[in-house]
Design a protein that fits this description.
With 500 residues, the protein is mostly helical. Among the domains are: 68-296 and 394-425, no CATH class; 448-500, no CATH class. It has helices at residues 2-6, 10-26, 31-45, 51-64, 71-83, 87-98, 105-121, 124-141, 146-157, 167-176, 180-208, 218-221, 226-252, 258-275, 281-314, 317-327, 332-346, 352-363, 367-370, 374-388, 396-404, 411-434, 437-447; strands at residues 450-451, 458-459. Strands 1-2 form a two-stranded antiparallel ribbon. A hairpin with a 6-residue loop joins strand 1 (450-451) and strand 2 (458-459). The chain is globular. The protein starts with a helix and ends in a 41-residue tail after the last strand.
């Protein structure tokens, strides 16, 4: 056999495959096709032989038949349409007027705009680039410190990874087999908490160091009436907020699946662009092409990852990893620390998509050993991936901003500016781990239904798998006999070592 010719056992072959993959991606090879090529080669070289070709077909069909992934192109299309509808400049101007009396008003308006726009698009590069062209020069002209302005734009642009409806959470749900609806509910409060901490930091800096974030000149805001502020908010903030609320509300309230809500959001973005007279055939064509390119990348990544992971597990590589981790005698806290540290380091050379579909599956089988809920683990990863876009030396958000920033802005200043926001993300992760109900309370509250067998009343309980779908209940005094016991999931188990 080829494995004997290589002189390696199957587990050693699997670990060699993983190591060579890391080498190849460092050399710049296309990741999706590298995954497929290595899966085919090492699968054939191991004990799979010709059957690895059948495995490739099966995994490809399974990915293409995954209904969860249908939401990805729809949300991406929604984001590209909104990006091209000239909504961002209207929204930023309205929020700037509304927050004119706050310390660091431009920074606050930038963060709120980033949070809303990131929620609508989920595309980090687009948000950072557009805000770098719109808000960053405005802050510099107002006398803001370059480091503070850089950190605000970069950190705000990354919020789309965490705040629903996030494409990253869809991919994690498809990879981990976790309900995307519950993931959205679990990430909602941590996302708002992180955005609020960013705003609080900006206001705090403006109060402590007024020369870093000067107030707007009195003559600039003197002629601004409340009527004008309300009019600006009604024509810019309210339409986008309503679109986001309808999409997210339909998902969280169980009125629509993520795919159905994404389709509704795509239609809403087209109507919104038409209302702003910004909908042209050229913009639609550009959005469709960009959506097709992004969706194709995600699908090929899933196919390559599915084949690679299957071959890796079949060769016994996953068993070696599990035995190694078990031999370290870790508890839940140290395992979570190790996993998050590895994901943090992987965020330097890799995009979040590669981390989710390639390396997260290696950690997922280990979660049961430490009593960690995959839902909670997904939220922690979403928080962690904020840092992968911000942390030097390979901080993609900083390079996006540098590409559109004025020439006098140094990359070193941008790196310095994002560091306080990285510390805020780490603090947010510690708070979420210490108090897991920050993430778990909302999904438990929204989807917890239990039926009292005595009265037939809906009582607080545990979240059923299908959200609001409740099994039929037969009253005790009916002809059908006694009521069945209500079906419920086991209680969500917080990681050991985390206190509520």
């Amino acid at each position: 056999m080829a494995a004997n010719m290589l002189g390696l056992s199957d587990p050693a072959l699997g670990l060699t495959m993983l190591g060579l993959f890391l080498v190849f991606i460092m050399l710049g090879f296309p990741i999706a096709f590298t995954l497929m090529a290595m899966g085919l080669f090492f699968g054939y070289a191991g004990t799979l032989g010709d059957r690895v070709l059948e495995l490739l077909v099966q995994r490809t069909f399974a990915v293409m038949a995954n209904d969860v992934l249908l939401a990805v192109p729809l949300f991406v299309f929604m984001g590209y349409i909104i990006e091209r509808a000239n909504i961002l400049d209207r929204l930023f101007r309205a929020l700037q007027l509304a927050s004119r009396n706050l310390p660091g008003s431009l920074g606050v308006a930038t963060l709120v705009t980033c949070a809303m726009f990131a929620t609508a698009t989920g595309i980090v590069g687009a948000v950072v680039t557009l805000m770098g062209l719109l808000a960053f020069p405005a802050m510099l002209r107002a006398g803001y410190d370059v480091r503070l302005a850089s950190g605000i734009v970069c950190a705000g642009g990354c919020l789309g990874i965490l705040i629903p409806p996030s494409v990253m959470l869809i991919l994690f749900g498809a990879t981990a087999g976790v309900s995307v609806v519950k993931l959205y509910a679990a990430a909602f409060i941590p996302g708002l908490m992180l955005a609020t901490l960013y705003v609080a930091y900006t206001v705090g800096v403006a109060l402590a160091r007024p020369h870093w974030a000067p107030r707007l000149p009195a003559e600039t805001v003197a002629d601004i009436t409340m009527l004008r502020v309300v009019a600006e908010l009604l024509t810019s903030f309210l339409p986008l907020a309503m679109l986001i609320a309808m999409v997210l509300g339909a998902i969280l309230m169980g009125l629509a699946t993520p795919s159905e809500a994404a389709a509704m959001g795509s239609l809403g973005s087209l109507l919104l662009a038409a209302a702003y007279r910004a909908l042209t055939l050229r913009k639609i064509t550009e959005s469709v092409l960009l959506t097709a390119r992004t969706s194709a990348m995600v699908c090929w990544l899933f196919v390559g990852s599915a084949l690679f992971s299957s071959v890796f597990g079949y060769l016994g590589g996953q068993d070696v990893v599990e035995r190694f981790v078990d031999g370290l005698n870790l508890n839940a806290f140290t395992f979570m620390l190790l996993a998050q540290a590895i994901i943090f380091l992987l965020g330097w050379p890799l995009e979040w998509t590669e981390i989710i579909v390639i390396f997260v599956p290696i950690f997922l089988p280990l979660l049961d050993n430490f009593g960690i809920d995959p839902l909670f683990f997904g939220v922690m990863i979403a928080l962690n991936l904020q840092t992968s876009f911000l942390s030097p030396p390979v901080a993609m958000a900083t390079f996006y901003l540098k590409g559109v920033a004025p020439k006098h802005v140094r990359l070193e200043d941008i790196f310095k500016g994002v560091m306080p926001f990285i510390y805020i993300v780490i603090f947010c992760m510690l708070v979420t781990y210490t108090f897991p109900q920050v993430a778990m309370w909302l999904p438990d509250y929204l989807y917890s239904v239990n039926i009292d067998p005595g009265t037939g009343e809906v009582m607080p309980g545990q979240a059923p798998t299908e959200g609001f779908q409740v099994e039929d209940y037969v009253p005790p005094d009916s002809e059908s006999g006694p009521a069945p016991e209500p079906a419920s999931e086991p209680a969500t188990e917080a990681p050991p070592g985390a206190s509520n």
